[in-house]
Amino acid sequence: MTAYDPNNIFAKILRGEFPCHKVFEDDHVLAFLDIMPRSPGHTLVIPKASARNIIDIKLEDYLHVARATHKIAAAAKTAFNADGLTIQQFNEASGGQVVFHLHVHVMPRHDGIALLPPASRREDAKVLEDHAAKLIAALQGT
Ligand code: AMP
What we know:
Layout (H helix, E strand, L loop, with lengths): L8 H6 L7 E4 L3 E5 L9 E5 L11 H21 L4 E5 L15 E6 L15 H16 L2
Antiparallel strand pairs: 1-2, 2-3, 3-5, 4-5
Helix pairs in contact: 2-3
The site of adenosine monophosphate has 14 residues, from loops.
């Protein structure tokens, strides 16, 4: 297994070296909006632990990610009035992973509306701010 690279973009976000549209944080996880959302409200949940993928993450750290994903999923459904949710997590390039710090995608879905292809469009910062505010408000109700 390739070693964890501490200079990946999500490690930089965790260290505060790169900005993000944060929606949730606790001692173990951070959740923020994907800058190239495949659906409105597309959120990434990441561990604070330096884990590359599901193979090398410690179970306790993964359970924190799972707990936060469960929470974000409920808030995303409410905030975006979603009909459903797509939850994805990719491992290694062959598995579709592009950023090598474990992350779970939470994507609100609406009937009849397809996901955009990955990395197809960088969302406007104002739209992301608005979506983060909606998610934060919904999280306060959970
Ligand atoms: P993957 O590694 O294929 O599971 O996906 C990586 C995801 O990270 C993609 O959906 C990108 O749009 C997203 N992404 C890349 N850089 C950033 C960033 N600086 N802030 C938020 N999302 C990002």
